């Protein structure tokens, strides 16, 4: 990755669109991981993702 690409990626992450994209990705991942049962369920990963979604990337979170 070039410095220019890294700068563009960080600028996107810092934008409302970037925040919404990450929020959407987190919500999608949480929903997928939550379907896993038994010993393969990633409880701490789900909890960490939910924390990030609720407090940092909530712009992309779907309203229910």
Helices and strands, in order, run as HHH
Whole-number tally of structural domains: 1
User: What can be said about the biggest beta sheet?
Assistant: none
Low-confidence stretches: none
Percent helix among the residues? Answer: 55-70%
**Roughly how many Å apart are the termini?**
38 Å
Cα gyration radius (Å): 14 Å
Which percent band covers the strand fraction?
under 5%
Number of helices: 3
Given helix and strand content, the structural type is mainly alpha
State the total count of DSSP E strands.
Answer: 0
Shape: elongated
Mean pLDDT: 91
Tell me the quaternary state. Answer: single chain
Topology diagram in text:
Elements: H1 3-14, H2 16-34, H3 43-55
What is the gist of this entry?
With 64 residues, the chain is mostly helical. The chain has helices at 3-14, 16-34, 43-55.
What would you say this structure looks like, in words?
- The protein is mostly helical.
- It has one domain.
- Helices cover 69% and strands 0% of the residues.
- It contains three helices and no strands.
- The protein has helices at 3-14, 16-34, 43-55.
- Helix 1 (3-14) packs across helix 2 and helix 2 (16-34) runs antiparallel to helix 3.
- The protein is elongated and about 45 Å long.
- The model has no long low-confidence stretch (mean pLDDT 91).
């Amino acid at each position: 990755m070039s410095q220019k690409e890294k700068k563009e990626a960080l600028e996107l992450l810092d934008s409302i669109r970037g925040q919404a994209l990450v929020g959407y990705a987190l919500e999608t991942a949480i929903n997928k991981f939550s379907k896993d049962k038994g010993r393969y369920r990633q409880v701490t990963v789900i909890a960490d993702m939910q924390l990030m979604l609720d407090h940092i990337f909530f712009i992309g979170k779907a309203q229910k």
